[in-house]
Amino acid sequence: MDTKPTRMEELKPKDKLTGTVIKTMLSGVVIDIGMEVPGIVHISRIQSEPVNRAEDVVEIGQEVEVWIRQVFPDRERIELTMIRPLGLEWREITKGMVSKGIVTRLEKYGAFIDIGAERPGLVHISEMAHGFIDSPGDVVQDGDEVEVQVLSVNRRRKQIKLSMKALMDPPVKTAKIVEEINEEVNNEPVPTAMEAALRQAMERSQNGESKGKKKKKGASLNDELESIFSRTLNKD
């Protein structure tokens, strides 16, 4: 944060502060951050590259940006770092968490996404969208901001597997087709006994058979239809 707190208890890890170098030592640097107790930057936290002597990098009176690492109010000790902290520490990355990230690299097998961790995570091509994808470039480009979900994290190997598909609604096209077919079947009127008989007679006439038995010579569709009408009238 940019505004300076007034008490040690208000300091939190990763808070950003501006301070002034007041002393250099073999072990690091002492920084005045406007508190009753100065902060200490260990020599290994002055910069990412190795440092032999603190005075090779900073000098007394120099204004520097620092971040809170740890605070011990009971010991009146504040540990700082001059190395910008990660947005996500390995211990903070958990399966199922959702995060926004930037596409940093495309490969044939997927896309690498920077979510603020030490290393970018991988969205495999099969986890980029529902359905077939020919190339990751069909979905995202370098520099795109995307929302992803953590599928798994391997802290020992420093690998993060991500998914874009997990945050997308599944396709509903197939479900809609089935629903439309069912609706059409349910709405189709039930044929009457006479309509059913007429339909059967038409089918038998087209196939040249009547329930597996050959028709008598001279029998015609008209004769059968007349018989159906007659039986129906007698039932009434």
Task: Explain what you see.
The chain has 236 residues and is α+β, with helices and mostly antiparallel strands. It folds into three domains: 8-81, OB fold (Dihydrolipoamide Acetyltransferase, E2P), CATH 2.40.50; 90-167, Beta Barrel (OB fold (Dihydrolipoamide Acetyltransferase, E2P)), CATH 2.40.50; 189-235, no CATH class. The protein contains three helices and ten strands, in the order E-E-E-E-E-E-E-E-E-E-H-H-H. The protein has a five-stranded mixed beta barrel. The protein has a five-stranded mixed barrel with strand order 6-7-8-10-9. A hairpin with a 3-residue loop joins strand 1 and strand 2. Helix 2 runs antiparallel to helix 3. It is rod-shaped, with a radius of gyration of 39 Å. The mean pLDDT is 84.
Query: Describe the biggest sheet?
Result: 5 strands, mixed, barrel
Weakly predicted, low-confidence segments? none
Write out the strand line-up for the largest beta sheet, numbering strands in chain order. Answer: 1-2-3-5-4
Class of secondary structure makeup: alpha+beta
Order of helices and strands: EEEEEEEEEEHHH
**What percent of residues adopt helix (DSSP H or I)?**
10-25%
Give the termini distance in whole angstroms: 92 Å
Binned strand content: 25-35%
**Average of pLDDT:** 84
According to CATH, the homologous superfamily of the largest domain is: Nucleic acid-binding proteins
Number of strands: 10
What overall geometry do the principal axes of the alpha carbons give? rod-shaped
Discrete helix count: 3
The CATH class of the largest domain:
Mainly Beta
Radius of gyration over alpha carbons?
39 Å
- Which CATH architecture of the largest domain would you pick? Beta Barrel
Tally of domains: 3
CATH topology of the largest domain: OB fold (Dihydrolipoamide Acetyltransferase, E2P)
